[in-house]
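Minutes, project check-in
Item: structure for the 110-residue chain
Input as provided by the requester:
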Amino acid sequence: MDDGYSQEEYLRQVLEAYRKTPGTMGTVRRADRMLAVQLYQRGVSVRVIENALVLAAARRVMRPADASPLGTIRSLAYFMPVIEEVLDLRVSPDYFQYLRHKLERLMPAR
């Protein structure tokens, strides 16, 4: 992991990013904390997790207008497949920045 965060700071960063992600309940549960600890122990960077949250949120928001509504995300575990996907992606950081700006325009801040 290249973040240089202590475990406490890492957990704070990850869980705050999760809490603020559009489509989530906006609350953090014990299972979310435990998963964040596992991600820290695996050495998954905060940036990878933040990028995965943005990518998943963008996919959920940018759906056809006539698509059926999606349920609220209730767990950080929902994002694990996308975290794994982002770990394998070779995409410019500019792409994730673009998605962040797009989400900020489409979604009200929490």
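Outcome recorded: The CA atoms of residues 47 and 79 lie 14 Å apart.
No further action items on this chain.
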